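Recap from last week: sequence in, structure out.
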Amino acid sequence: MAETGLVHIMAAHSPLSAALAEEAGFDGLWASGFELSALYGLADMSLISMTQHLDMLRAIAGRTTLPIVADIDTGYGNAINVIHAITEYELAGASAVVIEDKTFPKVTSLAAGGRQELLRVSEFQGKIEAARATRRDLAFLIIARTEALIAGLGETEALERARAYEAAGADMILIHSKTKDPSEIESFSRAWKGAVPLVIVPNAYPDLDAERVKALGNIRMMIYGNYGIRAAVTAMQQTFRRIIADGGVQNVHKEIVAVEEIFRLQRMDEVKKAETRYLR
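Predicted structure tokens:
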């Protein structure tokens, strides 16, 4: 962020998706709870455990050189749970965590009619303070996410919460919105006078591009929160339906990557070299 002003973070749910994001040129990875839940065919409602999410993050960290922003939802409980989570995520290879101010268990933000209940401000401040006190590396970012706009509480409430979370020691504020245009986010950004920068997740309002974000001046991170899993589902749906319609793979095999591309992503050449060198 110091070098470019704005970083682009792509969601990942596996080492393979992380490798593809790195090759594409993203600045970092979002270890997404939503995408991992979808991978298991489960709703994003705190059904995936911290252990499952940590297993994914460790696997990703072992496959990429990019920094990883971990989506830890509500911190898996109260401030004591947050202390445990920060310790584990820092050891697992994360460079940052995002903690949101909803009650546990949470409901995914963009679900129509979903239950969106927020914690008391003081209780969430305690979580941020606990996270900040626990981290070992000062470069490990604690990002506080307020769901005030998602819950329909308005900009004034969102700003008050953001200021309180900054006072508790948050390094950045993630402001989230489910409006179909970026006006709510742009308004918040213009009203934000805090010293820490903002993070956004432009899923519901895709028209807000990097040029417009840079013009706002205080947003330093854009997280593309569910595009990896949506792209994967799109491709699989189309391919699987085509195979059924065609009665075989005689057409789709020409439209998808060759198996040699999978071998490349699996680093098969390195395995072959190791076999030649070490297997006797």
